[in-house]
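Lab notebook, page 48
Experiment: co-folding of the full assembly
Goal: obtain a model of how the components sit together before planning crosslinking
Operator: M.T.
Materials (sequences as entered):
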Amino acid sequence: MTHLHDARPAAATAPLSKTQIAARVAADIAPGSYVNLGIGLPTLVADHLAPGSGVTLHTENGMLGMGPAPDPDDVDPDLVNAGKIPVTELPGASYFHQADSFAMMRGGHIDVCVLGAFQVSATGDLANWSTGEPGAVPAVGGAMDLAVGARRTVVTMTLLTKDGSPKLVERCTLPLTGVGCVSRVYTDLAVLDVGPDGARVVETFGTTHDELETLLGLTLGRTS
Amino acid sequence: MSRTVLARDPLDAIGDVADGATVMIGGFGPAGQPVDLVEALLEQGATGLVVVSNNAGNGEDPLARLIRDGRVARMVCSFPRQVDSWHFDAAYRSGAVELELVPQGNLAERIRAAGAGIGAFYTPTGYGTPLAEGKEHRRIDGVDHVLEYPIHADLALVRADRADGAGNLVYRKTARNFGPVMAAAARRTVAQVREVVPTGALDPEAVVTPGIYVDAVVEVAAPLPARTTEARA
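Observation: model returned without errors.
Model output:
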């Protein structure tokens, strides 16, 4: 079967590495966007934004214009990202308090939010804050605010858990972070759109539409 | 109280704190944490406290030791679980401390609402999740919202970079975080600052927290380390 994307180098013929997933996400971010990157795999996206793309990074602990990690000698304890990791400020950066930072998010001023996930449902529900383990100390941070706040929320994750269970599911079994908030999922095996009409394959990497349906146990739409 | 008082030391600054008081503590992890004021609270002795703070202590920092010593009855926070939050973990598992887990943006907005005199507000954050169970909800413009109430406090402890004699505050980088909203939400607000400058020395255009929200200021030129392992003598 000839596929539109088969002509793309490497990407279409083998599963993507985490770095390649991050690069694939970055390729979809429009120049000039305001973007929030979640903790974990999403932070790698920053390394793949083209220089001069004019993308501004938001960190929900109160900053726009976040730059990369500092040299070890230049660490400033007052300048950290949402993961409490030292960062730097770029020219044009600004600082604001927590209520402003989340108002900016919730108010739809952030164009794209990239989050990690334990599970995403075909209709765009997100579960990424709790493994539901009994007795575990719960912690949510900004996950729920980020999920529903940005104009577009996308997820990066491996398509399967380490034990081979699908993370893209008909219905999330883990505690929800948000309902119907995710619009696109970037994984090692495929890029899929999710939403009210269910999941739809956008692009595959080293697999086929039919194999994905078998793997996930879902009926997947095709990109027209 | 009207005019801001310049306190001698952190203990003098926090003044009397009643048992059972609700205390807001600024900071996002170690950034912006008013470590010396919390150390003073530890020394002051109030117990049965309700603490509102984004996190629940790191390592042996003073908030962690307040929890360890059984002085905190309830934590209201968004992210209590950290690699070094062992005192909170132990207190939570033993049932010694109650936890109200609040999404970070809701925490900030509920604190802001208290300072702004808002009775309650609808927010989309948390709808359909376990954290909104039992809360009133309403569909507005096709989007489901949850009703959230303000969080008031008896005392707010915040950390800023500089204050002037009128109690105006400016912060430093991401250490600003919860300081401005907490300062407005408490009946009494105490700020720990690196430097107190003469009234008039801060650019009025650059003031972040106006002095009306600040009851006492204490200059701590060399603060305790944010992740202290032992109390400094």
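Interpretation: Chain A has four helices and 13 strands.
Next step: discuss with group before ordering constructs.
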